[in-house]
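Deliverable D4.2, example record:
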Amino acid sequence: MGIDILDANMKKRNRTSPEQLLILEEAFLKNPTPNGQTRDILAERVDMSPRSVQIWFQNRRAKMKLQVGFLIYLYLFIYLLFLFVIEV
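Output generated by the structure prediction step:
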């Protein structure tokens, strides 16, 4: 009962299109932490709200942090494996 009312008030989630993604990724490579004015310009360019652009950048920075962490772990694993092979 109550769930139906909540569902009616929730906005549908919009995925970024490939064109939007290309523009946002390019902007991220130039500056991963854009200021409000830059976000406003980007939002207009990709036809998204400034808040959606802000959240996209937050999510992208989190993704980058995970990727970097994984690469460091992988490097350490390979290094330790290399040391083990040399000792054997």
